[in-house]
Amino acid sequence: MAAGLPELQPTWGGDEGAFDAYRAALRAFVARRVSDPCEVDDLIQEACARLLASARERTVDEPQAYLFRIASNLIADRHRRMLPVVPLEAEVQPQVRAVQEDQRRVADVQAALQAALDELSPRCREVFIMRRFDERGTGEIARELGISARMVQKHLNHAVAHLYERLAHLMERGA
Q1: Residue 88: enclosing H or E segment and its boundaries?
Q2: Helix, strand or coil, per DSSP, at residue 123
Q3: pLDDT tens digit string along 109-155?
Q4: What is the mean pLDDT of residues 23-36?
Q5: Residues 37-60, buried b or exposed e (16+ Cβ, 10 A)?
């Protein structure tokens, strides 16, 4: 029996010779996945100790499969612990916009919108505000202002075209 490895009491009905066969197969399995020979021995010993602890608490029907599952989990844990923590480079870090900058941007957009609306005729501005901000229907606006629904549409089309023209520079910057 290899030095430093636990003696197994056959609590699952197997014999010690079968356990030695498991250990040889397990050594080959772990050695293919871990390059440091000292780590291989440590992982095998830990896997065997965990199998023994489980076999004392409950019946292990497939000890070889269970032993290999334990070893796989230990190897995975070892690899997770060994992953280096790499700090993000400045160009990889997402840019965070300052709240103050966002508030200033909103204020600029609102001022530009107000200035563009002020350039419209009073009736055109009124129709646009009723439709877009008050969310009124075309027919309702026409009745309230005493104009045709077609005239409401013309005012809306004119207002939207004007606003697109006046605010296009803000949309290009990612407003």
Answers
A1: none
A2: helix
A3: 899 999 999 999 999 999 999 999 999 999 999 999 999 999 999 99
A4: 87
A5: eebbbbbbeebbebbbebbeeeeb
Amino acid residing at 51: L
Q: 74-106 b/e with 16+ CB inside 10 Å = b?
A: bbeebeeeeeeeeeeeeeeeeeeeeeeeeeeee
Query: Which are the contacts of 168, defined by CB distance < 8 A and separation ≥ 6?
Result: none
Q: Which residue has the tokens 């023994």?
A: 52
- Identify the burial level of 63 via C-beta atoms within 10 angstroms of its C-beta, where 0-12 means exposed, 13-18 middle and 19 or more buried: buried
What is the model's pTM? Answer: 0.43
Q: How confident is the model at residue 10 (pLDDT cuts 50, 70, 90)?
A: very low
Side-chain half-sphere CA neighbours of 51 within 13 A: 33
d(CA 57, CA 117): 79
Vertex 73 angle, CA 72 and 75, to 5°: 65
The confidence score (pLDDT) of residue 170 equals: 80
Quick one: angle between helices 63-82 and 37-57, nearest 10?
130
Residue keyed to tokens 């050594």 = 27
- Please give the angle made by the CA atoms of 128, 158 and 175, to the nearest 5 degrees: 70
